[in-house]
Fold this sequence. Notes:
By secondary structure, the chain is mostly helical. The protein has helices at about 5-10, 10-25, 30-40, 40-55, 65-75.
Amino acid sequence: MRLERVERGVGLKSKMIFAVLRLIEGYRAPDVVRTLVHRPEFFGGLFSKACQEALRGPSEWQVGERELFAAFVSKLNQCRF
């Protein structure tokens, strides 16, 4: 079940993001993007910050290696990212 507000976007900013993604990519914005944009102060901002830290923060692995790991896991999960 999808919430209508998350699906269609709330406010001009989210609707514009969804429209641009559809125009550029040729398909609707993925659910994770819609969730991140819906209420960034509740979930999106914190989640994005955690992802940024995991992919760009201090680590024994290079950024490219971490990106490759993320791409591989996404592929296993049949995710477009």
